[in-house]
């Protein structure tokens, strides 16, 4: 990939994280950021020579409960090596390539924010790992969110030429990979071991990818809802812009605007289509439910952007004042709570999808043959689909329960707060994956209902969505293995095709 992402430490976007993590975009470091790193490191090294310097956590002392250790200048290399090895305590499953790359990128950009005081050589190593596709093997579980210590330490192993890596798709020892790449193992200096592990870069990197996925999936969800409304023969009155002007909640208002644009030219606007004055709430309130997800994203995104463009080091270096400051900048509760809210909003969306499909399947509501059978008598059609999406929705409800408040006091009960950030992000990712199945199922239900209803024309954008569904899942005329349809629906959602249609046709 020829895209180059220029890092300054202050303006990385979530879209750029996805480009580097998933599409292999090249990273380069702004010259002004390099100058800051070199200048601050020079100051830090001069402070290390000062025998009168007070005790500074992780700089001339041990870490955690061992902060009472005094580390001599001569013992720094041994201490940092010991720190990395002892903190390499995570367990599997191992992170996928994209998550490792997102982690490396976020940590690199935060180092460039210049609150850490590490060497330019260490900063370069993160860049080189990314550009050379040399990825440390990182077990993903063990972090409680108060810095991803036990997982990030495995990056430190690779930097020192220890542990395993995946180099250009092949798993091997870090020592061999560094040799093949023409790199030397680094000997870590003052504060560098702590700088490698004392960060929430893993949770934040994964979070950036999950949030990117969520935004794209919501574009697809809005479009599929619009197609389902046509399949159901629903009422368009709840889309009236005047209603939202009276109560202008941002997410619902924006969602309704999107749905109106997807349905431009649809038969639904002709009148006389809807059989009742008011549809069930699963259809009538859908823009508000989808909008709640958008509002959760609106809260979360600025917090996450701030995180990936700032230092989360403790202690941090205040270069202009020539001093270190002990702090809690590793505390990420603000954006973790945003992810908890996002998961709960997605749970509402999942339940709504279930009821929309049930209503399309029910003759009394949709006025179509039961379970969208083509004849209503000899073809069972989507009779048992309801069990599958109900099971998926039950998992989502379970995953939407908060876990950020479940923690223990550790390290001699000094570390008595935690956020479980990686776990919160992982469970939100699982919610999204279940939703890919559920939205795929709703999409082919909607297309089947549209065919059975036989009214035209479809909306300007929903017509494209219908074509995308029918390109992979044909009209159900005779009973067939439904699992195959479910998998095709999932693949359609995972491909991003629906979100592309939504974005291409509306410019939003």
SSE topology:
Blueprint: E1 4-7, H1 14-23, E2 26-29, H2 31-48, H3 76-87, E3 91-94, H4 97-112, H5 120-131, E4 134-136, E5 139-141, H6 149-159, E6 164-167, E7 170-173, H7 174-181, H8 192-197, H9 201-232, H10 241-246, H11 250-262, H12 281-284, H13 286-308, E8 316-318, E9 323-325, H14 333-361, H15 363-366, H16 385-399, H17 421-453, H18 462-470, H19 482-495, H20 497-506
Parallel strand pairs: 1-2
Antiparallel strand pairs: 3-5, 4-6, 6-7, 8-9
What key phrases describe this protein's structure?
two-stranded parallel sheet; mainly alpha; 508 residues; 20 helices
Notes on the protein architecture:
The protein starts with a strand and ends with a helix. The chain is built from 20 helices and 9 strands. The chain is mainly α. The chain has helices at residues 14-23, 31-48, 76-87, 97-112, 120-131, 149-159, 174-181, 192-197, 201-232, 241-246, 250-262, 281-284, 286-308, 333-361, 363-366, 385-399, 421-453, 462-470, 482-495, 497-506, and strands spanning 4-7, 26-29, 91-94, 134-136, 139-141, 164-167, 170-173, 316-318, 323-325.
Helix content: 55-70%
Strand order of the largest sheet: 4-6-7
Number of E-type strands: 9
- Give the integer mean of the pLDDT values: 91
- Work out the radius of gyration: 26 Å
Q: Shape from CA axes?
A: elongated
* Biggest sheet character: 3 strands, antiparallel
Task: State which percent range the strand residues make up.
Answer: 5-15%
Count the DSSP helices. Answer: 20
Low-confidence stretches: none
The helix/strand series, from N terminus to C terminus, equals EHEHHEHHEEHEEHHHHHHHEEHHHHHHH
Question: Which class do the helix and strand fractions yield?
Answer: mainly alpha
The first-to-last residue Cα distance is 25 Å
């Amino acid at each position: 990939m020829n895209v180059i992402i220029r890092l300054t430490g202050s303006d990385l976007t979530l879209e750029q994280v996805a480009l580097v993590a998933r599409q292999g975009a090249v990273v380069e470091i702004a010259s002004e950021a390099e100058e800051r790193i070199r200048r601050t490191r020079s100051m830090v090294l001069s402070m290390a020579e000062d025998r009168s310097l007070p005790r500074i956590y992780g700089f001339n002392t041990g870490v955690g409960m061992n902060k009472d250790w005094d580390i001599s200048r001569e013992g720094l290399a041994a201490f940092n090596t010991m720190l990395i090895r002892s903190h390499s305590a995570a367990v599997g499953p191992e992170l996928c390539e994209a998550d490792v790359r997102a982690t490396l990128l976020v940590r690199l950009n935060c180092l460039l924010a210049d609150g850490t005081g590490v060497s330019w050589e260490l900063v370069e190593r993160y860049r080189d790992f990314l550009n050379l596709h040399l990825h440390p093997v990182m077990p993903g579980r063990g972090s409680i969110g108060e810095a991803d210590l036990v997982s990030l330490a495995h990056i430190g192993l690779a930097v020192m030429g220890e542990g395993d890596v995946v180099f250009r798709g092949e798993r091997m020892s870090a020592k061999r990979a560094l040799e093949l790449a023409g790199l030397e193992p680094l000997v870590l200096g003052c504060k560098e071991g702590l700088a490698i592990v004392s960060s929430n870069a893993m949770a934040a990197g994964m979070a950036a990818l999950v949030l990117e996925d969520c935004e794209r999936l919501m574009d697809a969800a809005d479009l599929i809802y619009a197609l389902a409304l046509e399949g159901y023969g629903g009422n368009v009155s709840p889309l009236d812009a005047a209603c939202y002007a009276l109560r202008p909640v941002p997410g619902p208002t924006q969602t309704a605007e999107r749905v109106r644009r997807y349905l431009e030219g649809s038969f639904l606007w002709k009148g006389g289509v809807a059989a009742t004055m008011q549809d069930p709430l699963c259809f009538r309130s859908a823009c508000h439910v989808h909008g709640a997800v958008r509002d959760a994203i609106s809260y979360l995104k600025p917090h996450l952007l701030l995180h990936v463009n700032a230092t989360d080091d403790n202690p941090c270096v205040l270069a202009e004042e020539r001093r270190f400051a002990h702090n809690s900048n590793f505390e990420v509760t603000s954006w973790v709570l945003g992810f908890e809210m996002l998961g709960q909003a997605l749970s509402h969306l999942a339940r709504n999808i279930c009821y929309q499909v049930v209503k399309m399947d029910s003759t009394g509501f949709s006025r179509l043959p039961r379970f969208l059978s083509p004849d209503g008598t000899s073809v069972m059609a989507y009779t048992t689909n309801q069990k599958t999406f109900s099971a998926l929705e039950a998992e989502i409800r379970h995953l939407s329960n908060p876990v950020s408040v479940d923690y223990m006091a550790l390290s001699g009960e000094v570390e008595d707060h935690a956020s479980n950030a990686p776990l919160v992000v992982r469970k939100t990712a699982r919610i999204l994956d279940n939703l890919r199945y559920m939205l795929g199922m709703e999409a082919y239900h909607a297309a089947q209902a549209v065919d059975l209803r036989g009214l035209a024309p479809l909306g300007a954008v929903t017509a494209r969505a219908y074509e995308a569904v029918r390109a992979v899942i044909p009209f159900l005329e005779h009973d067939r293995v439904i699992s195959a349809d479910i998998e095709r629906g999932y693949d359609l959602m995972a491909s991003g095709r629906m979100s592309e249609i939504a974005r291409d046709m509306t410019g939003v």
